[in-house]
Amino acid sequence: MATFRCPICGREVKIELRIDKEPVGGLHEVLVQHESHYVKVYIDRQGVVRRAFPVEHFTSVDPPLYTVYIFEDRAEIVDGRGHVYVVEPNQLAEVVKKLAG
Ligand SMILES: [Zn+2]
């Protein structure tokens, strides 16, 4: 478990990593999605976060039709045109159940 302060929103973020390889150059480079923004984090062998940078540009090429972000209090579904639909997490669970069923 590693913690760091998000350089974009200032909140403390906890990340759980399963690292079994030696880091390249002594530090593990990790791209973290925190809510709707991205942070690049460097973690040493002891699991201590050494640096955290905001990722200013994040582009997904060939984006999926829908991307789902799940937060503590809500879920957001973003379609391919960038429209955001906010739903209750339990509503989303119902939809997923229907799709899976
Ligand atoms: Zn943040």
SSE pattern, N- to C-terminal: EEEEEEEEH
Distance between the termini: 35 Å
The SS-based structural class is mainly beta
* Count of distinct strands: 8
Hetero ligands: zinc ion
Order of strands in the sheet with the most strands? Answer: 3-4-5
Summarize the SSE layout with pairings.
Blueprint: E1 2-5, E2 12-15, E3 28-34, E4 37-43, E5 49-54, E6 66-70, E7 75-79, E8 84-87, H1 89-100
Antiparallel strand pairs: 1-2, 3-4, 4-5, 6-7, 7-8
Residues 6, 8-9, 11, 34-35, 37 line the site of zinc ion (ZN).
Any overview of this molecule?
The protein is mainly β and 101 residues long. It has two domains: 2-54, no CATH class; 66-100. Helix content is 12%, strand content 42%. The protein has one helix and eight strands; from the N terminus they run E-E-E-E-E-E-E-E-H. It has one helix spanning 89-100, and strands at residues 2-5, 12-15, 28-34, 37-43, 49-54, 66-70, 75-79, 84-87. The strands form three sheets. The chain has a three-stranded antiparallel beta sheet with strand order 3-4-5, with no helix packed on it. Residues 6, 8-9, 11, 34-35, 37 line the site of zinc ion.
Provide a concise account of the structure shown.
The protein has 101 residues and is mainly beta. The chain has one helix at residues 89-100; strands spanning 2-5, 12-15, 28-34, 37-43, 49-54, 66-70, 75-79, 84-87.
